[in-house]
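<context>
A single protein, sequence plus fold
<entry> Chain with its tokenised backbone below
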Amino acid sequence: MIFLKYISDAFAERHVQLEAERAQGADPEDPDEYRRDAIFWVPPEARWPHLKGQAKQPGIGQLVDDAMAGIERDNPALKGVLPKDYARPALDKARLGQLIDLISNIKVGDEASRAKDVLGRVYEYFLSQFAGAEGKKGGEFYTPRCVVRLLVEMIEPWHGRVYDPCCGSSGMFVQSVEFIRAHANGNGNGGKARADISIYGQESNYTTWRLAQMNLAIRGIDGQIAQGDTFHTDRFPDLKADFILANPPFNISDWGGERLRDDPRWRYGTPPAGNANFGWVQHMVHHLAPAGVAGFVLANGSMSSNQSGEGEIRKALVEADLVDCMIALPGQL
């Protein structure tokens, strides 16, 4: 709902500007007038004033679903991303109407709010709260901001191809772009607020993939985010990335490793079928360009485990001079 309010706010502000420019030939109902300014076109049935006016009606759930469907129809980048289940019987429609009234008082998509990244911060706050509520499982879609910032500042992804094979909610990409903007002058960035980076990500969980798409969309970041199992359905098989950032799920035992025994990615040894940690590491090494750099988070046990050949894989990686730095992080991050 907040995402819907955001794109409607941005649309409404641009609509007012175009109305004022009608005498110069502007057309407030021309979708291209919005798209050229990286603003999503919002069809009439999805505009916030329309939904607010119907908030007390028993059919408000269906109206919201129709709004989401209309936005996806007219904005291919959002196809399959937005939820369309507000009409389900279990959802209290009176509460939904109250939520619409509440959100109506919050500005998130106007120019001033976008400059302050209000929605981005709200979105990240909710992600962190959801992750906290989920405990260990929350780490599969959210990485603490301080950890992401550390990785980004270590590898400095100024330009080129940036890849995250288990991208969760796209936090690595958001922080990479923020890093570039914060260091817009000098330091190899040529004074550009947005360096020439191409974003590639993959996420196996469909719901989390949708979160990733929305997280990039609210910040105006373009990226190729694919949905699917990275090990068994690699959506970017030929990609050689200049930078890789990742926080893969720790110690996954049911990753189907027994079906990948002769995989060409296992250049430094076959990872154990019962633990995907070194499968992730070698997948990332496989996708690095010759001068590429990777920064990723692993369980502490990965530094010392000798089970099922993991010690030999780690030794081979070190002897190949692939390891530059290891940092032990404190708990409770």
Q: What stands out?
A: The CA atoms of residues 102 and 190 lie 44 Å apart. The first strand starts at residue 160 and ends at 164. The mean pLDDT is 88. The chain has two domains: 2-114, 120-319.
